[in-house]
Amino acid sequence: MTSQTTPRHFLRDDDLTAAEQALVLQRALELKAAPFSRRPLEGPRTVSVVFDKPTLRTQVSFAGAITGLGGHPLVVDGNLAQIGSRESIDDTARILGRQSAAIVWRTHGQDRIEEMAAHAGVPVVNALTDDFHPCQILADLLTVLEHKGSLAGLTLGYVGDGANNMAHSYLLGCALAGLHVRIGTPDAHQPSPAILARATEIAAAQGGSVLVTDDPSATVDGVDVVVTDTWVSMGMEGEKGDRQGAQSPFVPFAVTEALMASAATDAIFLHCLPAYRGFEVEAAVIDGPQSVVWDEAENRLHAQKALLSFLLEGA
Ligand code: NVA
């Protein structure tokens, strides 16, 4: 059966409006308090969860979220499926869409997930692409909301690789939530100009702001939330020596205790994980009192459950 209505997808952070993002975060708080209160996948209906890249948190949290909503998570190994080579993306989309209530996909290019969404006939969710990691940002915003009580007007400073999926999703997702977003990154690793322009436009509408700088101290100075990410994203393993070596341009952007001390005294530290202690973050920070990374990791479950509920059931 194909769906009669046009499905909603979540391929990038700004596929939700600001009001919808706020609704999803509120629903996540409700589902965290009452985990089995919404059952849109009762049956159980299958959700296909496909991984073309490694995973731990994303697999476990989507499996838990789908099960909690009454459904059955079917995890598909992308190495077996070989989407786009053994079988075209649009044929795969039609096949999965006929047999799944939704499709969750971690893959490489954003163009791949856009093609999946164009032909699936059911909601498609981005579980990380080279360009965006929007589910992680929902979990991060939920964590900030829990620890700070509100979002709009807070300042978040991200230091590290400014051109990766996390930086791009912080730009869009935090701008939507009305935060002031600062990206501190070497000149050669600036965010995509198109994504930066879109984030600037959203920030202007939501009362926040966007700043990109090559000064790590200016990025973190006085902020409420300090974040970083690995310098070697999945698919960049060949550049590991350059990116993590002593001469790496990212070295000044490591979250050391000294850098953390320039944030607000009650600042929290976030990291999407996996973390590489001694590279992008010192152990004393990620394992220290300001770190909320385990809340953040748990919140993947609640945020994704709320997102799936929104995409399947609406407001
Ligand atoms: N930027 C990282 C995020 C991991 C969750 C990567 O793409 O590997």
TrEMBL record:
UniProt keyword annotation of Cytoplasm present: yes
UniProt organism field: Pedococcus dokdonensis
One Pfam match: OTCace
List of residues binding carbamoyl phosphate: Q82, R106, H133, P134, C135, Q136, C272, L273, R300
NCBIfam families registered for this protein in UniProt: orni_carb_tr (TIGR00658), PRK00779.1 (NF001986)
Catalytic activity as recorded in UniProt: carbamoyl phosphate + L-ornithine = L-citrulline + phosphate + H(+)
Principal location: cytoplasm
InterPro entries: Asp/Orn_carbamoyltranf_P-bd, Asp/Orn_carbamoylTrfase, Asp/Orn_carbamoylTrfase_sf, Asp_carbamoyltransf_Asp/Orn-bd, Orn/put_carbamltrans, OTCase_ArgI
Protein residues bound to L-ornithine: N165, D229, S233, M234
Listed EC numbers: 2.1.3.3
Ranges for domain Aspartate/ornithine carbamoyltransferase Asp/Orn-binding: 153-310
Lineage: Bacteria, Bacillati, Actinomycetota, Actinomycetes, Micrococcales
Protein name: Ornithine carbamoyltransferase
Molecular function terms from GO: amino acid binding; ornithine carbamoyltransferase activity
Pathway listed: Amino-acid biosynthesis; L-arginine biosynthesis; L-arginine from L-ornithine and carbamoyl phosphate: step 1/3
Subcellular localization(s) per the UniProt record: Cytoplasm
Membership in a protein family: Belongs to the aspartate/ornithine carbamoyltransferase superfamily. OTCase family.
